[in-house]
Write a structure and sequence with these properties.
Order of helices and strands: EEHEEEEEEEH
Shape: globular
Strand order of the largest sheet: 4-8-9-7-6-5
Number of strands: 9
Structural class: alpha+beta
Helix content: 10-25%
Number of helices: 2
Radius of gyration: 13 Å
Length: 120
């Protein structure tokens, strides 16, 4: 699971618990100017194929965490429960997309999109 916070002109995605080990990352710090928006999408993490795993863990139905290359894009996953998944679209970053499990998908998406809108 991921905890999201806004600090000035950047957003922090803090990977929690053992997921740090599985994802091979503990946090991502992204400037708000590089975040295009977010949306809820429980379908994004379902299925058994998430792309070519470049580092992390992928056990279908259990965990998808780490860096994947899929459809010409770099994707970072941290998901156990697809029904709690959000997608964060990025620009000018190592990753093109973040697919993350959060506590409250609708609330987190609203917070991300509000922070991006305020920056404009």
């Amino acid at each position: 699971m991921v905890q999201i916070t806004v600090h000035g002109d950047s957003m922090t995605f803090e990977i929690e618990g053992w997921d740090k080990m599985w994802a091979l990352k503990s946090r991502l710090e992204i400037p708000l100017s590089h975040i295009k928006g977010a949306r809820v999408d429980e379908e994004a993490a379902k299925g058994w194929w998430h792309g070519v795993k470049l580092g992390g863990a992928d056990l279908p139905g259990v965990i998808t965490a780490g860096t994947f290359y899929s459809k010409g894009r770099m994707v970072f996953y941290d998901v156990h429960k697809p029904e709690s998944t959000i997608i964060v679209d990025l620009d000018h970053e190592t990753y093109d997309v973040l697919i993350l499990q959060v506590r409250s998908p609708e609330t987190e998406v609203q917070m991300i999109n509000d922070a991006v809108a305020r920056r404009l």
